[in-house]
Amino acid sequence: MPKESSRGRKIGDLIQREVAVLVQREIKDPRIGMVTINEATVSRDLAFSDIYFTVLPSENTEIVEEVLNEASGFLRSQLAKVLSTRTTPKLRFHYDNTIESGARMNKAINKALSQDESQRDPSHTDE
Predict the structure, then answer these.
(1) Architecture (CATH level 2) of domain 6-96
(2) 92: exposed, middle or buried (Cβ count in 10 Å: 0-12, 13-18, 19+)
(3) Residues 54/99, Cβ–Cβ less than 8 Å
(4) The pTM is what?
């Protein structure tokens, strides 16, 4: 897989910062809660930007993703005022489930370690 260019990474970082501010200040939809923009990546030709977010409360992630994707045109037009590129990438929002995945993995690892420890030490009791 080719390495991401320095320019692409810089543009992604700028998009992440600016979209975070725009979502917080400009999107007034009551269906979205506290949205955090975790990462923004751009395609090599700068045509698309994939934006990964988390939201609190995390029960309505599909609705929030839908709302953000519907607002992507507005956000793109606002972003065009800030970016110094010839074209502004089309924005695609994706829910970032790495936090939940990490918590599940951590729980599974702790359970496996606990089971392993109890098998080594027969006098060990789970409390």
Answers:
(1) 2-Layer Sandwich (3.30)
(2) middle
(3) yes
(4) 0.77
